Amino acid sequence: MDRKTLSRRSFLRLAGGAIGVTALAACAPPAAAPAAAPAAAPAAAEATAAPTAAPAAETMVDSANPLWVILDIDFHDTYNEYTQKALTDYVAERGWVMELADSAGFAAGSGETDRIAAAVQSGDAPDLVRHTLSPQLLHSLDTTQPLSDLVAAAEEVYGPIAPVLKTGKLIDGEWWAVPYHQRVGGGYYRKDAFEGAGIDIQTIRTYDKLREACLQVSTAELFGWGITINRSGDGNSIIQRIMTGYGAGWQDETGQFIRTNSPEMITAMNFIKETYLDPKWAPMLPPGVLAWNDIANNEAFQGEVIAYTENAGTVYAKALKDGLPVAAKTGYLAPPGGPVNQEFNAIGSKDWFILKGAKNTQAAKEVILELTTNLEKMDAMLASSPAYAIPAYTNLWEMSAYTQSNEMSLQVKPAALNDSGIFAGSWPGPSSPALTAIENSGIWNDMVNSFITGTSVEEAVATAHDRMVLVFKEFGLPGE
Q1: Is the pLDDT of residue 193 over 90?
Q2: What does the pLDDT average to over 448-476?
Q3: In this structure, are 151 and 15 located in the same domain?
Q4: In total, how many domains does the chain have?
Q5: Rounded Cα gap, residues 214 and 231, in angstroms
Q6: CA-CA-CA-CA torsion sign (226, 232, 236, 239)
Q7: Half-sphere exposure of residue 405, counting CA atoms within 13 Å on the CB side?
Q8: For the chain, what is the radius of gyration of the CA atoms?
Q9: Same domain membership, residue 167 and residue 252
Q10: What is the pLDDT of residues 89-147, one digit of tens each?
Q11: Distance of alpha carbon 16 from its chain centroid, rounded?
Q12: pLDDT score for 314
């Protein structure tokens, strides 16, 4: 392509299936657009001081420079529908032209980050992105703008951000993303199955005991252990949690050296191998579990095929919104750990990013403030995805009428506000762009697939170790 910059549609076309244009909202022709009115004060400001960092509406958004927004797509229709409508309604009120694209969520790979980086480098970046991507990795690629002013405005309304969310977002004293909401993840189980077997699952705090309980509740029609280790977000999660529970880590305390090839890691990986290959545990494994993706366990749980899974909160929220019978039978379990680390539960978030080179930075800031600090809109968003979207700010737990009325959301609150400092995946060292790149590359899943298909655990771990060292060196770290 001869042009030095890609057009928006060229970028989307080259990006392939993960990002596609789904809506083009010409909210008003530039010539007929009303004069820009001051942004409406957040509803929460009636009881709380208004954000001091609200930007003035100075940017001219027009057909030549529409507000270009990318929203990720979740496994939850009403959440997707509400957040898209809230955005388009506000843009229409402002008289702006908008180009809206959706980004396929739950992609366990680097594709979306690469595409965003390519757009920034091409000089034709989207203005605003809402996603679960790594702020640390995006910042290391020099693709995002600092947003400390907006975080300060949100904290003025809702109080401090949840402690866990500082990791990877607050870098060198600047915030590089604005948390929109925490995105629940954890264990979801069939209350009727475990209670019927006389098992109090809430007392189970290690994976070996959980495995025994899942086997006990399994029948010919209901499989206890609905967790995959296939390449996926869920597969990454269970590998990291078991590893951390057994006291193993990918790296050392400094985050400079890879320490994957350790006795603790080999013990943890043997636990995984035994779980999926030993005939003793076969009755609890649903057919095809080793080939599942991030959607398969949602469907299996909602179809009442499995008794326990670990997943995002959409598995419950969608069942509730769709009126499925399994919703009333569902309970939440903060996932367990192992003999070394048991309690290390942390709830991630969905964030707002403004990209470098954005042509409508000021308008993008107005959108973030309106959708984040307006309590009425925040409450409606939380209600659109019950017990999946939860407050990312400490005082919002009490301010949100919806959250206060939702029992499942309140069950998650201790994990959401957890400040243990143990993060599966980076423990015992800090999170880093290098570790994010390793996760995106699929090295962990390749390691597990290798010993599941016949390689010895020792050889698979050693190979993964060497591959991770190379990635660390690519990021300027010694690695070994």
Answers
A1: yes
A2: 97
A3: yes
A4: 2
A5: 23
A6: positive
A7: 7
A8: 23
A9: no
A10: 999 999 999 999 877 533 334 478 888 898 899 998 999 999 999 899 899 999 999 99
A11: 22
A12: 83
Residue 139: CB partners within 8 Å, gap ≥ 6? 171, 176, 433
User: How long, in residues, is the chain?
Assistant: 480
* pLDDT value of position 53: 43
pLDDT tens per residue, range 374-419:
999 999 999 998 888 999 999 999 999 999 998 888 888 988 888 7
The sheet with strand 128-131 has its strands ordered as 19-26, 97-104, 67-73, 128-131, 349-354, 178-183, 389-390
Same domain, 354 and 331: no
Q: Using CA atoms, how far apart are residues 283 and 221, in angstroms rounded to an integer? A: 10
pLDDT at 59: 52
Confidence of residue 346 (pLDDT cuts 50, 70, 90): confident
* Same-domain status, 382 and 456: no
Residue 266 shares a structural domain with residue 409: no
Count CB-CB contacts under 10 A for residue 151: 26
Q: How far apart are CA 61 and CA 40, in angstroms?
A: 18
Assess contact for 356 and 129: CB atoms under 8 A: no
Considering the entire predicted model, what is its pTM? 0.75
Whether 176 is in a domain gets the answer yes
Do 232 and 100 have their domain in common? no
**Exposed, middle or buried by CB within 10 Å (0-12, 13-18, 19+), for 35?**
exposed
Q: What is the CATH number of the domain that holds 34?
A: 3.40.190.10
Distance of CA 9 to the CA centre of its chain: 26
Which residues are CB-contacts of 453 (< 8 A; sequence separation ≥ 6)? Answer: none
User: 422, 334 in Cβ contact below 8 A?
Assistant: no
Which residues span the domain enclosing 452? 192-345+442-474
Per-residue pLDDT, 344: 87
CA distance 268 to 258: 17
Which of 400, 416, 432 lies at the terminal end of a domain, its last residue? 416
The CA-atom distances, in angstroms, between 475 and each of 115, 144, 334 are 19, 19, 34
**162 φ/ψ angles, rounded to the nearest 5 degrees:** -55, 135
| Domain membership flag for residue 2 | no
Amino acid 360 reads N
Residues 219 and 318 in one domain: yes
Tell me whether strands 67-73 and 128-131 are parallel, antiparallel or unpaired: parallel
**Do residues 29 and 147 lie in contact, with contact meaning Cβ atoms separated by under 8 Å?**
no
